[in-house]
Design a protein that fits this description.
about 45% helix, seven-stranded parallel β-sheet, alpha/beta, Rossmann fold, globular
Length: about 290
């Protein structure tokens, strides 16, 4: 019997991963959902999934939570600025527990990219490679869900505003990336491999606005502005200066090409095309 563990299992990505594991034929009793607050994963426990408390920042909880785990999906944390240390804690605990392979969700071209999110992923990859534990690194591209937070505002105003220019984004839904992670962790042949994952075809923000127009039945146009203008607009909408700068930096990264890949690793792992943008948005708009 092989035991699979998923960190952050009560989060958006982790839930998709647990669901995909079950869909792939893994018995719920062979899946361990690692969560900071077990009560948030009560629905998983009801399905027969083992739920264990695990805090990236508390090594003592990690050692206990990883006991008996064979294969670990390490879903990158959400606390920007703390993630490299937190991930290292998980990797150290996994090594101590005798985990046979770690699959890690990283960022596009983490070792060379100027993407503001890349340094912590680069540091984690380095720790993972040095650990001696067999690994699979999944450099996940952009999640299409990242663009849905402002959908109501976009519909009301009739526009999307940003500083991404005509930059191409190889985006796909979280569920696609989670399904790819499950393929990588359940199938042989992915030991010590690094994959660049991205949806295809790639799209610009103008393409995204057009797709949202069709999906919602409301005309939405993309208006490109300078980074300085974008930051001012975000601050005017209520974001603090640091957050506005961070969001703007992501747009600048898209314009620079940091969110684009020609790799078809995602499609190969899925064994199918990634979910078309229009199809995903149509479902989301409902």
């Amino acid at each position: 019997m092989t035991t699979y563990a998923v960190t952050g299992a009560s989060g958006h990505f982790g839930r998709h991963a647990v669901s995909a594991l079950i869909k792939s034929g893994i018995a719920p009793s062979d899946i361990i959902a690692l969560v900071r607050t077990p009560s948030k994963a009560a629905d998983l426990a009801e399905q027969g999934v083992q739920v264990r408390a695990a805090d990236y920042s508390d090594p003592a909880t990690l050692s206990t939570a990883l006991d008996g785990v064979d294969l670990l999906l390490l879903v990158s944390g959400t606390e920007i600025g703390k993630r490299a240390e937190q991930h290292a804690n998980v990797i150290d605990a996994a090594k101590g527990a005798g985990v046979s392979r770690i699959v890690y969700t990283s960022a596009p071209r983490a070792d060379t990219s100027e993407l503001v999110l890349a340094p912590e992923h680069k540091a984690t990859e380095a720790v993972l490679r040095a650990s001696g534990v067999p690994f699979t690194i999944l450099r996940n591209g952009w999640y299409v869900e990242n663009y849905l937070g402002q959908l109501d505002h976009n519909r009301a105003s009739g526009e999307m505003v940003g500083a991404a220019g005509d930059g191409l984004v190889s985006g796909a839904p979280r569920a696609d990336y989670a399904a790819a992670a499950v393929a990588a962790i359940t199938q042989p042949g992915h030991e010590n491999a690094t994959y660049e994952l991205g949806g295809a075809p790639a799209f610009t923000m103008t393409d995204l606005a057009s797709a949202l127009t069709v999906a919602t039945g409301t005309t939405i146009e993309y208006r490109d502005v300078s980074p300085e203008e974008n930051q001012a607009i975000l601050e005017g909408a209520g974001l603090d200066a640091g957050t506005a700068e961070f969001v703007t930096a992501l747009d600048v990264a898209a314009k620079r090409g940091d969110l684009y890949t020609e790799s078809r690793d995602l499609q190969r792992l899925l064994g199918r095309d990634s979910t078309p943008l229009a199809e995903f948005l149509a479902a989301a708009a409902e």
